[in-house]
Design brief:
The chain is of the alpha/beta class and about 450 residues long. Helices cover about 35% and strands about 15% of the residues. The protein has 15 helices and 14 strands. A 6-stranded parallel beta sheet has the order 3-2-1-4-5-6. It has a 5-stranded mixed beta sheet with strand order 7-8-9-10-11, sandwiched between helices.
């Protein structure tokens, strides 16, 4: 075992410490005790959970950094294979490049080779976030940090479950490496650190716990006690914001979306399903400037997926404030019931100061609203005068931003360089074509409806 360095090696300027600096320095000695547990080299250890050996470790659809990085780290910890349920975003790619990592194989390709292979899900446990190609009978484990709400995965037999009320799946996995006294490669330690910074918004999110702070301090000591973690965080979040400027409204709305089901308080047989997307950015004004086109897309995506509401929160990770886009009267009614406040003068959004977490801030408000008996406004009707539309991909190599997904409306000029993703979308439903040959993995978002009927996108 190594002897940890028990004094911080940082010499920051005299100024107010960032939450990351405070976490690293104030927990230095305590975190050092965990560093001491990690072996200096690979060695034989007892298998902690035999059922997980050889399993596929898989994050949720529309994967974020914690989902992809967590799968990679968990696969190392439990001697399995990582997989991904969607495309890699720019922040995750930045982390993989920094730490000499490679994107996991797609879950479709791994299950195609062995349909009965065991699967452990990472960073989620809801059926709505499970890739549709995964049979629930294959699931042998869950590693997660989210609340157990509706539509959790169902298994016939007892499975391995590690769910902790911490801010990040990577926190859980880093801690597990230490307590199980298993060798942690430095590049995976770096991925774990980046995963925690991403999911906790640099330890500023209300979901951040003491364990997240301890593990950040542990990982900094383990990787390089002199590293400037602030520089890492800044570079990582610049990478997260970089792709937003070139993304279409369709991609922005569906890039980080989760669906939640709520039971009507007056009629328990009635289930209301809500979509909730998030855009995390260092430049909220740029996304707000596109509010009107994003609202048009929200309106169509809501009806495509037969949802009662579809929200999109633009999260300002610098000022820790969110702007909730309001796509219609139902969204307005529910947002005011859930969060209070006043809708902006132009009617496009509701400002939510201090609210940045879907798990901690946004969803609990909706839960409370439904428990208090919220229902859609009386007399509400969806518009019947809707243009048919289809989702297309720009597959022209000469395009400034090829391989982007967009919604094209009936009657609009459609270039021959676009590949149709769907048949006509009308009213409440859409049908996404079953295969798209030539689509590249750089496509950064996909609507859940597409994931249900689109088995995979080939590189």
């Amino acid at each position: 075992m190594r002897q940890s360095v028990l004094t911080p090696q940082h010499h920051y300027a005299v100024r107010e410490e960032t939450p990351i600096e405070d976490a690293v320095e104030s927990r230095w000695e305590e975190a050092g005790s965990f560093v001491d547990k990690i072996p200096e080299e690979e060695r034989e250890t007892l298998t902690y959970e035999p059922k997980l050996k050889g399993a596929i470790f898989l994050g949720h659809i529309l994967p974020d950094a914690d989902s992809i990085l967590g799968a990679i780290i968990a696969a190392k910890l439990y001697d399995g294979v990582p997989a991904r349920a969607g495309d890699i975003n720019t922040e995750t790619q930045f982390v993989l490049d920094r730490y000499d990592g490679t994107a996991p194989e797609t879950i479709e390709s791994l299950l195609e080779a062995d349909p009965e292979r065991k699967v452990c899900v990472v960073d989620f446990q809801q059926q709505t976030q499970l890739h549709p190609c995964v049979p629930m009978k294959n699931i042998v484990g869950i590693i997660d940090h989210h609340a157990l709400q509706s539509a959790t995965v169902i298994t016939l037999q007892p499975i391995f479950v590690d769910i902790r009320p911490w801010g990040c799946a990577c926190t859980i996995l880093a801690h597990s490496f230490a307590v199980q006294e298993k060798f942690l490669p430095k590049n995976l330690a770096g991925m774990a650190l980046s995963g925690i910074l991403s999911d906790t918004l640099n330890l500023r999110s209300p979901t951040t716990t003491e364990w997240d702070k301890r593990m950040v301090s542990m990982l900094v000591q383990y990787i390089d006690p002199s590293m400037d973690v602030n520089m890492l965080a800044a570079a990582q979040f610049r990478a997260k914001s970089r792709e937003l400027s070139i993304m279409t409204p369709y991609q922005l709305v569906n890039g980080d979306t989760k669906k939640f089901k709520f039971t009507d308080s007056k009629d328990p047989t009635l289930i209301r399903e809500i979509g909730y997307g998030v855009i995390e950015t260092t430049d909220a004004s740029a996304s707000l400037a596109r509010a009107k086109e994003l609202i048009v897309e929200l309106d169509h995506c809501r009806d495509d997926d037969n949802l009662i509401c579809f929200f999109l929160a633009i999260v300002d990770i610098v000022n820790m404030t969110s702007y909730l886009l309001i796509a219609g009267p139902v969204e307005k009614s529910l947002a005011l019931e859930a969060y209070g406040g006043e809708i902006s003068l132009d009617g496009t959004h509701l400002e939510l100061k201090g609210c940045v977490s879907r798990k901690k801030d946004f969803v609990p408000g909706l839960t409370s609203a439904f428990e208090k008996g919220w229902a859609p406004p009386a007399g509400h009707r969806r518009s019947l005068m809707r243009k048919n539309s289809k989702i297309v991909m720009n597959n022209s190599p000469s395009a400034s931003h090829p391989w982007t997904l967009s919604r094209v409306f009936e009657g609009d000029e459609e270039s021959s360089t676009f590949t149709s993703f769907s048949t006509s979308i009308s009213g409440a439903s859409s049908s996404i074509s079953k295969s798209i040959d030539g689509a590249k993995s750089s496509v950064s978002s996909m609507v859940n409806a597409a994931k249900k009927s689109l088995p995979f996108i080939k590189k």
